[in-house]
Amino acid sequence: MSKKLWLAGRAATVGVHVAAEKIWTKAPRTAADVPRNGVSLTPQWLTAVLCNDVPGAEVVSWHSPGGSSGTSERAALRVEYNAAGQAAGLPTELFTKASASFTQRLLLGGADVLGGETSFFMAFRPEVEMEAPVGHWGAVDDRSWRSIIVLEDIAESKGATFVEPTAPLSRSQVEDVLRNMAAYHGAWWDRPELKVLKTPTDHYDNVAQMLDFEGRCKVGMERARSVIPSRLIGQADRMWRGTQEGLRVCTDDMPTTLLHGDPHAGQTYRTASGAMGLTDWQAVMRGGWSYDVAYFISSACRPEDRRAWERELLAHYLEHLALAGGVAPDLDEAMLRYRQSLFYPYSAWAFTIGRAWYQPKMQPDEISLAIIERIATAIDDLDSFGALGI
Questions:
Q1: In this protein, which residues make up the domain named CHK kinase-like (predicted)?
Q2: How many CA atoms lie within 13 A of 87 on its CB side?
């Protein structure tokens, strides 16, 4: 069955579930239940997922002070426990992310990212010393594509402020994020448990078969032509070849490690103490380290900063990768992999600004244009075509 026929069938099934949930849904009470959103909860369900390891602990009440909606529904939770839960120090300041609407479920389910954060927070995050939220529960209902993840609310617990995608970062802040990358890359270097995750090529195939990825990137080049170096204008087909080949390199030609999958600066935060962290792990995957590092540096750094810092940033990352348990290549090989890995981040943002009418508007155009300018300039500066031989 083709991907589009499969997706049409899944859309019908998910649509029936979403419609039925508006009429009647059983209140979640056990850990086996997946709530229809992040606020249709019960004390019994919260007890089942938060108190399981503390005998006698129970959630006695909870409320949500607010939330927001985007590619997922997000809501803050404030939880109160009985004496046993309080004595155990169970978390009281929490945050939920859920796939509630039909479009959220179809987009995230069709792209196979619904289980990403559950996998990260429940299986991978506990083994890494890094700045990232702590996850407490996650689950996906495969038939309805309902999903929920319950996380630490870092805005409250750490005084975190979230970074805008184009905010100017200092060199020390970029280095801090790269140390986080080195930590999770090194901790999960070439481990067999990663086989449950998709690869960069798998992710590309999922999106390309569901939506016109290549076509929307061509549209994106036209919409962003004012910020793209002149030598790249008109080369949308070649940029697409670079995207495919760069993803193949990260999938087939490099040691495998844990990848964030979408590590632009808008996925970072700054704690009250000044530490930089990474959040939004729904695109988590497995593949070569340069996928994350090239995406982050090229999209987060202004061109003049990237030019001045990038070799030393790579050296900094490689040093910490080795300390964290990874096998660091020499700087020249690392630079080659970095250059080869710049096309996918460009295409991700060209696709974003090149969206069709039926696609969600994931970012304001001014954000997309600024990031496309940064990445396209890096591709031009570093002759990424030559790095891939295309």
A1: 149-327
A2: 8
